[in-house]
Design brief:
189 residues; alpha+beta; Aspartate Aminotransferase, domain 1; three-stranded antiparallel sheet
Length: 189
Amino acid sequence: MQGWRREMYFRETRLPWVMPSPNMPTVETALVYPGMCLLEGTEISEGRGSTRPFEIFGAPYIDGVRLAEALSALPGVRLRPLVFRPTFHKHAGKGCGGLQIHVYARGEYLSFKTGVGILRAIKALWPERFRWRDKPYEFVTMIPAIDLLCGGTEVRRGIDAGAHLDDIAATWRAPEAEFIERRRPYLLY
């Protein structure tokens, strides 16, 4: 095989094992991403600029031990306090207290609810420091980033009001049930 053809063959046959993004390096990252991407709607680092984006998160003002204690009831996950220094993106070059997510029971773990719970806890523990992202997100300027990520205002309003996590989660139960019903005919296996 000629050199360039051989190289193309190997590149094409390796595609299924290539990570889809530098910010999605592991299967574990993909598992936590649906909830942890909500941090993009805040000024909290979602771990970009680290070796474990979305699996670790934090900010210079966060006490990881205190936050882990506040989140100890989240199902299917263990949260390990840490300090990390992002090399780029939010809080680049600064020491950030935070947590690393370890999913130990995939059947119990609820990624989106975990992400909302994390935002709720950080806002409750550090209300004077917590900030929603106010810059445009994905080129959208008229909708707050968190509302764009959540598909509406309910999550942000619930967190701002100090609502219980289960009350906030109740706001997405009906749309979730509707989606499950709509997708049913398309599930082949």
